[in-house]
Amino acid sequence: xxxxxxxxxxxxxxxxxEALLExxxxxxxxxxxxxxxxxxxxxxxxxxxxxxxxAWVDPGFAERxxxxxxxxxxxIGLSMSGGxxxxxxxxxxxxxxxxxxxxxxxxxxxPIALLGPSPGWYKSEAYRSRVVRDPRGVLRExxxxxxxxxxxxxxxxxxxxRYMVLPRRPEGTGDLAEEELAALVTRKxxxxxxxx
Length: 196
Prior knowledge:
This protein is α/β, with parallel strands linked by helices. It has eleven helices and four strands; from the N terminus they run αααααββααααββαα. Helix 3 packs across helix 4 (59-67) and helix 8 (125-133) packs across helix 9. The longest helix has 21 residues, at 3-23. The protein starts with a helix and ends in a 5-residue tail after the last helix.
């Protein structure tokens, strides 16, 4: 069975289940599409950047973020629920001794609400398989050369858990306001394939 044919069969099954749920009054017509649209509309890397900038300027927030990210991000009006069941978010902090990178080896699980739609390379089989085996080599291909003494931790996302990297604050940014700091943060930095 070709990938496109299998995808069509799954889509037909999903539409059938959705129609059954609607006919039984368990879902309003079009409710799933509406919820997905709402979820995707709010998802942008600017959300993740806001979280990082707040952590850089507020050590208490950073501590709460690393201990319980789902609760901490609510402080700035964000969540991982998107109107559906809330996913567990774990934020991992880069240090001089350890750099973190996120992957989903099974599919492409990803915190859309905080990072927007995932980039094509994140979903690629090449990234998903290689970053686990050779993270240093993959990061080098992204232009991120880490010292040999820096350990690399690879975090594998799942349907229940999502990860986001808290990059190290760039040197020389002590006088920048929170909004200016947020502008420095990239989606690649939030995944760990860039320094910031």
